Amino acid sequence: MTVEIKSEQNIEQAVSDAIERHGNQREELIPILTDVNRTLGFLPAEALEKIGARLRVPRSQLFSVASFYQMLSTKPRGTHVIKFCESAPCHVVGGRQVWEALQESLQLKNGETSQDGKWTLETVSCLGVCAVGPVIVIDDDIYGNLDPKQISEILARYE
Amino acid sequence: MKYFRSHVLVSVDPDCVKRGALEILDALQDELVSQGLIDEVQVLETSRIGDITEAPDMMVYPEAIHYVGLTPDDVPFIVEEHFLKGRIATKFTAPTRVFTDEELSAPTAKEVRVVLRNCGKIDPENIEDYIAEDGYMALAKVLTEMSPEQVIEHIMTSGLRGRGGAGFLTAQKWKFCRATQDWPKYVICNADEGDPGAFMNRRVLEGDPHSVIEGMIIAAYAIGSNQGYIYCRAEYPIAVHTLKIAIQQARDLGFLGADILGTGFSFDLEVRMGAGAFVCGEETALMASIEGKRGEPRPRPPFPAVKGLWNKPSNVNNVETYANVPQIIFNGAEWFASMGTENARGTKTFALAGDGKHTGLIEVPLGITLRDVIFDVGMGIKDDKAFKAVQIGGPAGGFLSTQHLDYPIDYESLRSAGAMMGSGGLVVMDDETCMVDMARFFMEFTQDESCGKCTPCRVGTLRILEILQRICNGEGKPGDIETLETLSSEIKATSLCGLGQGAPNPVITSLMYFRDEYEAHINEKRCPAKVCRALISYEIQKDFCTGCTVCARNCPTNAISGERRQTHLIDPDTCVRCGICMQVCNFNAIVIR
After folding, report:
1. ipTM for the complex shown
2. Which CATH class is domain A80-156?
3. Chain A residues within 8 A of B441 when measuring between CB atoms
4. I want to staple B250 with a disulfide (CB 3.0 to 4.6 A). Which of A140, B121, B255, B266 is the partner?
5. Domain B435-523 belongs to what architecture?
6. B196 near A CB under 8 A
7. Domain B341-430: assigned CATH number
8. Are B290 and B231 contacting, i.e. CB atoms less than 8 angstroms apart?
């Protein structure tokens, strides 16, 4: 699948839904952005513009918030997002080998999205499941106790 | 209230879900329905019950039978045996072990559960379970029998200090906020638990959310606030979900909202989620994030007690601090003060991670030694390797070595050794860990998480990181150690918030206690722990190699040559040091030099 071009309607819908859910107060900005990011996969410039107009927040401020938080993305992302836990407990129990295996099999570096729009590879800070490190999260699925050999088999599940 | 003859608790924390807990839950529901037992047996979702290796598991009350290592196929049998025939399915019960004398005195004897007392025991999504464990009794006492000043005095007597890291006296914070003449005031719970390897707060929020809520209501009464926020990190969706249910239930029963328990005191709570930014655990950044802004810290003073959320007086405590409060009121300040040491009262939860045998959450009285925690509660080092270091206090904490094993864990002792209590992450490292690599690793983390507002943190940590990377790559130069020391002390002195001020600590402490490793990297171009790739080489031992060709066939760069049944050879120039040959060799013929 190639990166889906978000139609004007989709964006309008996502923004309206999020604002309806949280209200149009300035302090609700982060929950609204999180919701839209979740629905659309990222925050297209059109979406930011619409949110800005509805909340009466200047575009500069919107962008400053949207670009600050790790979970918000202003760039298109893949159908499946792989998050690798880069924290110390995972590192100590062999995280580096898993990270290399991931980069090797996807031919992606940190933060990159594959040409075909299928995968995005990124690191994430501690997920709090340190007892089963090294850990990766694909979309909402958590995989723990990983060793590099399992990577290709896990990725194959998302064909 | 509906009556059930049995209650089954199934652990559904993320680790257990990963091991198939949800499938067990589904199978259990289906089987209870088909056996017609669904109205007699209640199935509850809870946080961790036993060891992760036993998951998926479930606990059956009132008998307290722990069934472990289950698959969905086992469920029909257990349901039939236990709930229909009333026999314990011994095949799946946790194995009873014969304990030796040494084991009986350990490993849990040194643990004391105060904050974690209800976790895994009660249903976090049912407020009645919490009430049955004396929940909200402290709140009733506070609202009906005590003045706000008495509450503060009581907490002061207990000696409770902040569990988020800095260890400031909780009652003192409350006092400042109460004294500020401005309104409204806010009570904030810092649940942005971002330290890598620390997940104590997640467990409390997922397993016993009402203890935090009750603590916050009491704090609100003490300082005179009517509105509170729990700021929880977005990486913890289950915690947020549990909290929201708990808040609604507390509202329904009149513990939150207007006129609490008919006393005229009003207070309400809202959960706020972050969006992935470590720095938001810093209190001023956290408040900016609640306001919907970039989570950047600002200089203090003014402290939040004077100008906090929306420039109004605010009290920020962490999850564990609030969770302690109801029990201090309920059991008395003296009870609390009887645990721990002179300057560090009570217990502390720690998350053990890394190379220890036992990883996971523990709760111990403050003042316990590192040795007791690592070798007793934590049962020592995996594969019986040697202990090398422990990293305590998160990315702003420090490394401690064998010489500190008999140090008591309290705020001042740790600080004097260059580490800090932090929120409670303890990463144990064995002798195959390279300390320069670890320091580089932590610096990568802070560099990545630096918000960029102040220069010492933004640029300084990058400079440190570059030097450490060079050293790990075998390009260290004389003078690097001195530069690291200068940079560290300058960043520490001039950064805006705790993140930057603490960032050099891993470097400072590793230089202090493991300087010889830095010197080996720089002067001898050698990594003593054999971790840094540029400084190691793989070698085939002649006496062990059988010439089976497995290594040569698996080498991704064709760096290994040799005829069948002849000793093979690795070409160091082609070798990328991936270690695959060592993994595949059946004769342990390959070693790292």
Report:
1. 0.83
2. alpha beta
3. 88, 91
4. B255
5. Up-down Bundle (1.20)
6. yes
7. 3.10.20.600
8. yes
